[in-house]
């Protein structure tokens, strides 16, 4: 009987063990582990999205055309070349006046080019006048003193031309009248005579001036010549460009 009870005892123990095995729940993952997994997944997805955006942006920049450098409008350049062609110094004319153009100058007229040339001439003559004053420290060198006076007068003549045009423009309507053209021609011719007189005096007196002043003299005289040529050929230019 003891052996049977023992066997029954063993059987009870076995049944309890089976119940333990069948009814014990599986261990659940901890909340911290779940959060770590979720964070890792979100991080990977976010990284992939960022890489995709970067790739698309890089592709857009790579294939988009680069912006064109600033340039003068073609019509302005063509008009300027036509006007400069009537002068003795077409290259100097174009290089000097084109630097004064901007994007708003979609079409230049002979009148506006004349104004540009007068302002450029005024700038060069003013610079030269200052240079002569800077070396006018030798009383015995009369040629330099004469050049100071001559280019001061030349500058006054050019500025008178600019002022006359400005006054006529303020009146409205067509300002480039026969009288204005005649006055400008007279003033620029007088300014050029001043420049030639200075050059002749320096040569006759054997006055030595620096190479920089010689270059400034050449540039000033060329710009005055350009303005005179433009105003002298204005009637022809108006027919060509209008």
From TrEMBL:
InterPro entries in UniProt: Invertase/methylesterase_inhib, Pectinesterase_inhib_dom, PME_Inhibitor
Keywords for this protein: Membrane, Signal, Transmembrane, Transmembrane helix
Domain Pectinesterase inhibitor stretches: 75-230
Residue numbers spanned by region Disordered: 1-32
CDD domains linked: PMEI-like_3
Keyword Ubl conjugation applies: no
Listed transmembrane segments: 38-61
Entry keyword annotation includes Membrane: yes
Pfam families (alphabetical): PMEI (PF04043)
PANTHER family per UniProt: PECTINESTERASE 1-LIKE, PECTINESTERASE INHIBITOR-LIKE
UniProt family annotation: Belongs to the PMEI family.
NCBIfam families assigned: PME_inhib
Protein name: Pectinesterase 3-like
Record lineage: Eukaryota, Viridiplantae, Streptophyta, Embryophyta, Tracheophyta
């Amino acid at each position: 009987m003891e052996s049977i009870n023992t066997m029954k005892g063993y059987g009870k123990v076995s049944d309890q063990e089976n119940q333990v095995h069948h009814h014990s729940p599986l261990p659940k993952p901890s909340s911290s582990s779940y959060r770590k997994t979720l964070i890792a997944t979100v991080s990977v997805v976010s990284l992939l999205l960022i890489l995709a955006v970067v790739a698309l942006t890089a592709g857009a920049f790579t294939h988009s055309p680069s912006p064109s450098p600033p340039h003068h409008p073609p019509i302005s350049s063509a008009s300027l070349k036509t006007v400069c062609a009537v002068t003795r110094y077409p290259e100097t004319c174009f290089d000097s006046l084109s630097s004064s153009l901007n994007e708003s100058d979609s079409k230049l007229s002979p009148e506006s080019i004349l104004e540009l040339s007068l302002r450029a001439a005024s700038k060069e003559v003013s610079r030269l006048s200052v240079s002569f004053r800077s070396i006018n420290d030798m009383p015995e060198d009369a040629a330099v003193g004469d050049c100071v006076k001559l280019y001061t007068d030349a500058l006054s003549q050019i500025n008178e031309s600019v002022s006359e045009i400005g006054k006529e423009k303020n009146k409205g309507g067509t300002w480039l009248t026969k009288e204005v053209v005649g006055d400008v021609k007279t003033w620029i011719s007088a300014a050029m005579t001043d420049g030639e007189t200075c050059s002749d005096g320096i040569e006759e007196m054997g006055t030595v001036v620096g190479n920089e002043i010689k270059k400034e003299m050449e540039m000033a005289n060329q710009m005055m010549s350009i303005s005179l040529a433009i105003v002298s050929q204005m009637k022809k230019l108006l027919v060509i460009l209008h």
